[in-house]
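Q: Predict the assembly, please.
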Amino acid sequence: MSALSFDNVTIKLGGRDILSGASFDIKDGEFVGTLGPNGAGKTTLMRAALGLVPAASGAIAVLDRPVTRGNADIGYMPQTRLAVAGLRITGWDIVASAAIGGRFGFAGLDRATRREIDWALDEVGARELARRSIGELSGGERQLVLLSQALIGKPRLMMLDEPLISLDPAHQRSVVEIARRICDDLRIAILFSAHELNPLVNAIDRVLYLGGGQAVIGAVGDVVTGPVLSHLYGADIEVVHIKDRYFVMAGDVDVERDAHRHDEHGHGHSHDHDDAHA
Amino acid sequence: MSMGTAIRTITTTPMLEYDFMRTAFMASGVAAVLAGTVGFFLVLRGQTFAGHALSHVGFTGATGAVLFGLSPLAGLVGFTFLSGIGMGLFGEKLAERDVAIGMMLSLARGLGLLFLHFYTTGATQAAALLFGNVLGVDESALATLALLSAGSLAALAWIVRPLIFASLQPELAEARGVPVRFVSTAFLAIVGVAVAECSQIVGILLVFTLMVGPAAAAQNLSRRLAGGVFLAAALALAEALGGLTLAFYTDWPTSFWITALSGLIYLASLAGRFRAR
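A: Predicted assembly structure:
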């Protein structure tokens, strides 16, 4: 059984081919890291699997079934999460609002839902953090609370869009470890996009590399090589491999590092970053 | 206290002995609970500008209705309700929405000006629209307000779960299959009704005082969603009834007292927020 399969899929956005005839297959229970240059279609791929972006041609299957909107088998964590960063509402209430927000009609939280929210928060180690207001948390703490939402509803496939963005190395490591554990313990397939391979390299089963409308999936050592990446980037790419670390270079530029610079400010003083004290 | 005797003889009659005061209390209560509740979500969504624009559209509706021989309340509610739907159907991105709302607002003001130009019944009714005249609410208007409030609160209760989800995490809500556009359009239609009710009490220019003030204070004071909604409604109710009571004993305008209480409570909530941190 496959968790997510793309068969010769072409996706056009604004007249541009994001994917053109891309094919790959993610197995059930597999942890796959998705990489590729900016605009290669990492987010679009996830949105297509969620039924938010139509495929111009080809077939997409989630757990061997065609794509549907609001598929309860998919747990998703979108990339833009800044809207909640300024709120004073507790993390628990935000997770709860997502857990019951899919349906119309007035009803409170039942006991089973409360328990599931606590369970999901426990899985990511954020139960205590969720008691505090979401705006008071540091970027990494907030990320954990939001990550718990992807577990609610017992999904079989989790898609995490750039969950490491703007996190410091320690929080990056804990998010990757949690994802690996979720994959192993709960047998949930995970698609995890990132702009740098190195934080993921020891955790993932395979890597899905996107570029030039194409997708290549395989073991890190087979995919992250000069010839494969040169083909995907459409430019001369050299891969420098030192122990567990990979450096993807175009000429003398490290393309993964330079493509994204999103260092978040104020990590060291996470609890007093917005308002004055009386 | 030496000068107080004359005033005292007038005001010793308990205010609830008067029919118009009872009606005013009920009308303010009904409108305030709706305004506080709806306002909470308006502030949560960062759409207070939309509420502001709707109140100006309401002015056009009311003056237009009078000009064409209809009841101003009908014109007010009809116009704000339809404009709310229009706003919701318009742009979904914030930047687009700002422009759309700004355009609607200036167009509405222009039309309102035109209607006012032809509107010869005098400035009193215009002043009542702009600054509210809760003491002028009659029994039939009260019944209409109560019915509209009940209907709006029921509609809000029906959409409240997806509304909160879509307000806090729009992308995730969309991915989970929440009809985001429908929810936001329905919400703005409800805002339209709440704005119309509110302007009956405090007037079009002061709608913010009951919709935004209590909601913003509640969000400063509460970290919980459900608690925040109830607190916003309770604060709005207390401000409206308190303002009316103060107006009765001082003979100053009700709307002034409501804005004063709303402002004070908001400032107090800021102090409370800083102390809590």
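Residues 1-9 of chain B have pLDDT under 50 and may be disordered. Chain B touches chain A at residues 157-162, 164-166, 168-178, 219-220, 223-226, 228, 271, 273-275, 277 (CB under 8 Å).
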